[in-house]
Amino acid sequence: MKIIDFLKKQTTLEFLKSVAVGLASNAVDFLLTAVFLYAYGHEHYDGFWGVFSGATVGGTPYSPQFSVYITATVIGYISAILVNYLLSSIFVFKYGNVGKNKYGFLKFLFFSAIGLGLTSLGSWIGYDLLGGNIWVVKLIVQLIVFVYNFITRRLFIFNVNLIRDDENTISL
Question: Can you state the angle between helices 66-87 and 102-123, rounded to 10 degrees?
Answer without folding.
Answer: 150
